[in-house]
Design brief:
six-stranded mixed sheet, alpha/beta, 19 strands
Length: 500
């Protein structure tokens, strides 16, 4: 996408001119500059509802101007109540409309989308982010497609803001959208294509591109280190596991390190605790946590914040064979703690146990782990909320500010002494991996918490939010790339010492 900044409405030449309209639009001081060019009748059209001003209402109107073919009026509702989340979703719909109409050239009068709380540069970030995410299409392996590819090639912005400042804002929005879409592509890949080895190769390319230090451990190396939890999950597979560590170190010393730890289970059969024939479909997306981590690292590589970050991904599939691990097995984790296996479908927490232990060993000062871990989080919170656990409320509150900024809803769940007691209940081992289904999300995340010790830690269960069951304003059915933007925004805020 090519960004150009224009100074005024008179010089525009485009297929689509995109204009934000709201209640009492005629009272805006800059609105007269638009009606001077395109006619006072626009005000009457809004009063007659021929042009929709309700939130997310889109109205296409042809013009008599030879330089502008059509105007797309975008309803903002009550401008004073417009939130960044609503504006982002609205631009997602704008992007979908442009794609539907196969538009190659469009111009956004970005100042018409600004409010008292959303500056024009903020609106520019939101616009490119929303349009980039909204127009994402799931790659497929179909062999027939008769339509030639047509995409938006030229996007022009009209604003009174300085050009350099505006272009910088537009680039940030595009960087965020591209990273989310990259994570979506990973989630949507079939398990026979995106193996643990393939995830390692993807991470290597990312590290090469951005100059990250990287270490990729294979099966023999994991055996030497005694990573019994990841290896137990991998026992039934012909595919080798991988433990991937990337380090971004812009500071002089390797300290104050934020670690992102992602579950990268490329396909989950449930093992001998096998999933149902309907529950097993979609398990190619059980590496959504790893995808989120890789997406966040892509943003960090592009924007280069002044904050040390480490990414650790434990990757394998969970298959069934004569060698697969079984209920009643006892395994020894990298930390030395032993685990009684009660449920082989509670495998993600085992992978994370070794991964967070390794993150600590590699110098993590704080840890955020992400996983499509439990169906319990969906039962508790639905498909639109990410469940969270923490051992440090202040840490969570700082991260939560980032999620509020990105509109990725998280909800903090309790982790009580009684919960921990049940996780530690076993006649033969230090822990058990499945205390029960009654508090499944809490037990799953709480199990991981047994391996972080006193290190400030946040667990994010994205089982409900990592995959969309149907198309939505910001994308199609399939992987969402949830938490990519929140992880990166948290690092940006921390690097800038933002507190509000």
């Amino acid at each position: 996408m090519h960004f150009i900044k224009e100074e005024n409405l008179q010089s525009v030449s485009t297929e689509f001119l995109i204009v934000g309209v709201s209640q009492h639009q005629e009272n805006l001081s800059e609105w007269s500059s638009f009606t001077t060019v395109y006619g006072e009748q626009v005000n009457q059209w809004m009063k007659d509802e021929d042009i929709q001003v309700k939130l997310k209402g889109l109205t296409k109107v042809p013009t008599t101007s030879t330089s502008v073919k059509r105007i797309l009026y975008v309803g903002l509702g009550n401008r004073k109540e417009l939130s960044p989340d609503e504006l982002r979703e609205t631009f997602g719909l704008v992007g979908k409309q442009l794609a539907k109409d196969r538009v190659q050239s469009a111009t956004i009068w970005i100042d018409s989308f600004a409010t008292e709380d959303i500056q024009a540069t903020d609106a520019a970030i939101i616009a490119t982010e929303g349009m980039g995410m909204g127009t994402f299409q799931v790659a497929n392996y179909k062999t027939t497609n008769n339509l030639p590819d047509v995409s938006l090639e030229k996007l022009t912005f009209i604003s009174e803001v300085e050009e350099a400042e505006m272009i910088a804002a537009l680039e940030v929005g595009e960087i965020y959208a591209n990273a989310v879409n990259a994570a979506r592509n990973l989630i949507n890949e079939p398990g026979n294509v995106l193996t643990a080895t393939a995830i390692g190769e993807y991470a290597q390319k990312l590290a090469d591109q951005y100059g990250f230090e990287i270490e990729i451990l294979g099966k023999s190396q994991l055996e030497e280190l005694g990573m019994g939890a990841i290896l137990a999950v991998n026992k039934g597979s012909k595919e080798e596991p991988r433990l991937i560590t990337m380090k971004y170190n812009p500071k002089e010393n390797w300290e104050d390190v934020v670690a992102f730890v992602g579950k990268g289970v490329t396909f989950d059969t449930g093992g001998y605790s096998i999933k149902t024939k309907t529950g097993i479909v979609g398990m190619k997306g059980d590496m959504g946590g790893a995808a989120a981590v890789l997406g966040a690292m892509q943003i960090i590589g592009e924007l280069r914040p002044d904050q040390n970050v480490m990414a650790v991904i434990g990757s394998t599939d969970n298959m069934i064979s004569g060698d697969a691990f079984k209920p009643d097995d006892v395994i020894t984790t990298y930390s030395g703690k032993t685990v009684e296996i009660l449920n082989t479908d509670a495998e993600g927490r085992l992978v994370l146990a070794d991964a967070v232990s390794y993150a600590k060993q590699q110098g993590a000062s704080s840890i955020i782990d992400l996983a499509t871990l439990t169906g319990g989080v969906i039962t508790a919170l639905g498909f639109d909320k990410t469940g969270a656990l923490t051992n440090d409320v202040d840490f969570y509150n700082e991260f939560h500010k980032a999620t509020e900024e990105t509109g990725e809803f998280t909800w903090l769940m309790p982790l009580t002494k009684n919960d921990k007691k049940r996780i530690r209940k076993s006649d033969v081992a230090d822990l058990n991996n499945s205390p029960g289904g009654d508090g499944h999300m809490i037990f799953g995340g709480g199990f991981v918490g047994e391996f972080v010790g006193d290190t400030p830690w946040i667990h994010l269960d994205i089982a409900g939010t990592s995959d969309a069951m149907s198309a939505h304003d910001l994308g199609p059915k399939g992987g969402t790339g949830v938490m990519v933007r929140s992880l990166a925004t948290y690092i940006e805020r921390k690097a800038s010492n933002l507190e509000d």
